[in-house]
């Protein structure tokens, strides 16, 4: 009887194990988010207007508020995960986050690794310097004795190397305010970054200390990103933006955060 009891226990445990293996897994990341009850978003506190921590200690900005709306429409909570700029895509690909939401340009090179949503806004790389500087043209900037501050891994870094091959490129790991600090402190002569980022971030520095030069290096599509296999989530996000463009919530966000400085009185 003892031998039969042992065999019965082994068969029972094997059955439980096999049933466990055959338990239905979430069909895709969107279903996993719904089951988990949480949307995990990789962000960077690069500064206004897309993602920053305001004077009250609250994370906000255009991209952050878009993601809060997404979570609200999904019926889940949202959790924001901080990464350096060059850590955003690795965090997404390693499944630490479901979605990458930053003012990231959808470049062809990045699209080899991730799937970008349809662009939610267009911006471009610009050049900035101390107010009243002698830099006026690409020729003024493209000299061996000129140092240019850029963000490591950014499109600004690519554009600076492309337009200013003679200059010294100094790459910083972190957010856009580092570049403005570098220029004001004399560690760099000029900086290159997205126009929307520079406009928003220069408001945090003394008035009339920085100016954007009349040099636009590119026009770039900004987009969110998901893992290549997450087509359902990608389609849902694109549909989300279609809906909020129609009902006015997209314009409300962009006009408040990106096209004006109205956010400054609240944050």
From TrEMBL:
| Lineage: superkingdom | Bacteria
Q: Which Gene3D superfamilies match?
A: Periplasmic binding protein-like II
Among Pfam families, the record links this protein to:
SBP_bac_3
Solute-binding protein family 3/N-terminal domain residues: 38-261
**Alphabetic keyword roster:** Signal
What are the boundaries of the signal sequence?
A: 1-27
Matching InterPro entries, A to Z? Solute-binding_3/MltF_N
Q: What is this protein called?
A: Amino acid ABC transporter substrate-binding protein (PAAT family)
């Amino acid at each position: 009887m003892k031998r039969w009891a042992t065999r019965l226990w082994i068969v029972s445990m094997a059955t439980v194990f096999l049933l466990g293996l055959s338990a239905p897994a979430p069909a895709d990341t969107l279903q996993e988010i719904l089951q988990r009850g949480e949307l995990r978003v990789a962000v960077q506190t690069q500064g206004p207007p897309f993602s920053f921590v305001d004077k009250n200690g609250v994370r906000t900005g255009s991209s952050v508020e878009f993601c809060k709306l997404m979570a609200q429409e999904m019926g889940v909570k949202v959790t924001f995960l901080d990464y350096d700029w060059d850590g955003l895509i690795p965090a997404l690909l390693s499944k630490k986050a479901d979605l990458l939401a930053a003012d990231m340009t959808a470049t062809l090179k990045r699209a080899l690794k991730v799937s970008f949503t349809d662009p939610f806004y267009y911006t471009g790389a610009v050049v900035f310097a101390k107010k009243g500087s002698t830099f006026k043209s690409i020729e003024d900037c493209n000299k061996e004795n000129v140092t240019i501050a850029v963000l490591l891994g950014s499109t600004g870094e690519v554009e600076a190397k492309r337009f200013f091959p003679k200059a010294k490129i100094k790459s910083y790991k972190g957010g856009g305010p580092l570049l403005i600090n570098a220029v004001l402190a004399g560690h760099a002569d000029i900086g290159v970054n997205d126009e929307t980022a520079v406009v928003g971030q220069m408001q945090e520095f003394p008035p009339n200390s920085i100016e954007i030069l009349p040099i636009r290096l590119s026009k770039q599509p900004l987009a969110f990103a998901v893992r290549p296999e997450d087509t359902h989530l990608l389609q849902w996000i694109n549909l989300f933006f279609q809906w909020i463009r129609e009902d006015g919530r997209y314009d409300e966000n962009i006009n408040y955060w990106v096209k004006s400085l109205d956010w400054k009185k609240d944050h």
